[in-house]
Model the fold of this input.
Amino acid sequence: MDGIDAALVEFQSRNCTLKATLSSAYPEELRGRLFAAVIAPHECDVDAIGELDHWVGVCFRDAVIELLTNNGFRPDEVRAIGSHGQTLRHRPKASRPFTTQLGDPNIIAAGTGITTIADFRRGDMAVGGEGAPLTPAFHQWRFASDKVDRIVLNIGGIANITVLPADGSAPSGFDTGPGNTLMDAWIQQHRNAGYDDNGAWASSGQVSSDLLLNLLQDSYFSQPPPKSTGREYFNLDWMIGMLASFGELPAQDIQATLSALTARSIAAAISSNAPSTGQVLVCGGGVHNTHLMDQLATQLAEADITSTEPFGLHPDWVEATAFAWLAHRTLAGKPGNLPSVTGAQRAAVLGGIYLSGS
Done:
């Protein structure tokens, strides 16, 4: 929820090229209201959801226009926009499973003059899947090797892995648990910072082994895949509940423990589900946290851990590129999900197509 990542991507048969990128921050009021809606959904009524849906759609529209204008591209040079939307709620295990992403695609399509594909996740859920993660199909297309077992590790707010066996067997993948979300929430509360730059604050503290063990006892970590989660589960309230049985701990020690939680839960997921992994390609904001990356290297000493950049795609833009690719697949009438990852009954073409009307 830091803002919007927009990428202009050109696709070839087995490759893609980033033509331009843009990161655009949400207005502070919008960001605050989005966080409040996720953390306290009982206080978010239908009117609030409608207003947020419109506001996020306007921000997405403006980000596209700014990206094209800044880089000298015309709307008629762009085939389509793939819009993930801003996740408000993800409940794949509910008695009536659902997922909700905000950002009205009608506003995006009408305001840019570009066909927009959106609402990807519900297509997978309609055929029995978790609706997440959806990026593994793109990871397979872009990063699979026939020489080494690879994992693509995305560390955003939530961390997820894509397991790419060298023998060509079906990929697997799932959300491992918190990525940056708990560390970001804790440092925002105690130091009024958006994130822990390079993990400097975490590295100044001492890991509480008792607290770490308690955090790792959460049932999510022992659930078998397919599984997915989000900020509506792993958030500040979850953390405070876990801390309730502990005495006073220095805030920096808790930050250190949260960093260790991310590293340990990722490493455990890889060791349990893909022990033959030779390479781990990391993308997402967590790749810039040197303390976290050092912890992962220690936990996964047998694997070569690097960012996706040496493999041709900058780690900051893998997610945005993946949803451009999913839109590309939708327009071609090709499936975008991997049933081996999401648990869907079958592969499905994902997303709705919103024509610009121009």
Remarks:
- The CA atoms of residues 53 and 131 lie 20 Å apart.
- The radius of gyration is 20 Å.
- Residues 3-129+317-354 form a domain with the Nucleotidyltransferase; domain 5 fold (CATH 3.30.420.40).
- The chain has a mean pLDDT of 96.
